[in-house]
Amino acid sequence: MPSTSQSVVDKLCWTKPLADMSEGQKALILALRTCVLANVEGRCCCGHLAQYLGSAHSVGTFMNMLRTIVAAWPESLIVHRPFCYTTTYDEVLIVDLVTATIKNDSQRFHAMLRDMMPRAAIFSIQRTVREFVDTLPGRDIAPAESP
């Protein structure tokens, strides 16, 4: 019986491994981790962010999006070290928010945040995520659709 309980606990605590994500999703998470770590250390990370995001133009909108998210988040934003193979719930949620924006799925975007924060904060985050997505070259963060 304990193995069944442990199995349920493992399933509840599971997050998607970085290796199972699309290249665009990995790049977004690495940019997120790099930006948070550089901020903590008081370093500039713009060069690295431009590499991850595919353009220098995306860096400013990415940093603005991240500032808006951090200001609205109900708790401290949790990210892993840059090359950790697992993901945090916050990292996956941000990828999902960007993906919903790319797919123009406003209903899904709001559903993911409505229990976490006020509507005004959600609209503010949605606006900055849209601004970021609009600067992405190729907008390739979202996984390919299954046939």
Structure description:
- By secondary structure, the protein is mostly helical.
- 25% of the residues are buried.
- It has 7 helices and no strands.
- Residues 143-147 have low confidence and may be disordered.
- Helix 2 (23-41) packs antiparallel against helix 3 (46-53) and helix 5 (89-102) crosses helix 7.
- It is globular.
- The protein has helices at residues 2-13, 23-41, 46-53, 57-72, 89-102, 106-113, 119-135.
Give the CA-based shape. Answer: globular
Q: Write down the Rg.
A: 16 Å
Proportion of β residues? under 5%
Distance between the termini: 39 Å
Any low-confidence stretches, pLDDT <50, length ≥5? 143-147
Mean pLDDT: 87
Class derived from helix and strand content: mainly alpha
Helix content: 55-70%
Q: Sheet bearing the most strands, described?
A: none
Write the layout of secondary structure elements.
Blueprint: H1 2-13, H2 23-41, H3 46-53, H4 57-72, H5 89-102, H6 106-113, H7 119-135
Helix pairs in contact: 2-3, 4-7, 5-6, 5-7, 6-7
Compact summary:
The chain has seven helices and no strands. The protein is an all-alpha fold and 147 residues long.
Question: Could you name the key traits of this structure?
Answer:
147 residues; 64% helix
